Amino acid sequence: MIKQLENSTNNQTSTNTAQLEEIIKELQNNPQLQTNIEDLNKVIGTLQNSATPQNNVEQLKATRDQLKAQIPSSEKLKQLDNSVTLAKSSLDAVQSKFNAVKDGIVADFDGVITSLSGTVGGVSTPNMAVITLQDLSNLKLTISLNKFDTEKVKVGQNAEVKNNNKTYKGQVAFISPSASKQGNTAMIAAGGSSEGNLSADIDVLEAAPELKVDFQSDVSILTGTVANALKVPIEALVTEKDGKNFLFVIENGLAKKKEVKVGLQSDTEIEIVEGLGENEAIILNTTDLKDGDKVIESKKGE
Asked: Where is the YknX-like C-terminal permuted SH3-like domain (predicted)?
């Protein structure tokens, strides 16, 4: 159908061009109008020097002026000539496009058709994507980074893509230079923060047939590594309003609150760089816990 539409446009443009050229030729080569005007001028001159009523002369003058109006000016002819030139350019462009696709369209990469918007016999528009072809062997994921994430995430960092208990290697390939406020319209309308997020692309570095286009997956980005780090479950950390971090440890059956300094962290664990000994027992459930409360240390496996 696309081929037929292109062919139809081609024929229509060619017809319009020919019609314009014919009009110009007819206007330029029409001696009869000029002859009629000259004859009327002779008659008018004769009548003006006779006893013929003046109203007859005026009628003839009006007829002469109407004939003169039918002769196009040089400016009008120039405009028509320009229209022909533009029509020819349009015809050449359409013909070039038609020649490019008349034997079929071949993609420059192998892929899978993931979307089919057109049907045989349907009507398409110039900007309509009839077929979407995607290379499923070259997948990427798009994630959203807030202002805190952007300080740690850099292009080239390794990433893990998790989907249905399977993990694939990935890498940060691109970080948008500007933030998008999409999704924050409710906050803006309510007079709240209008800060947006940066989008970032994660390339999947290995074959991942289980990943599907437009499905969601979990992504972990390795922002740094530390050898022999002392780490604790992140739920054990208590962060107070002033930004200080604490852990509760067990000393002589009592909970003791200790300030600590933290380093790198993941979704589940955080590095302790100062304030905690390697063999100290920490308390995970700190809800309503206060410094000096009695606690019972659980044994391994309990």
From this structure: 229-296
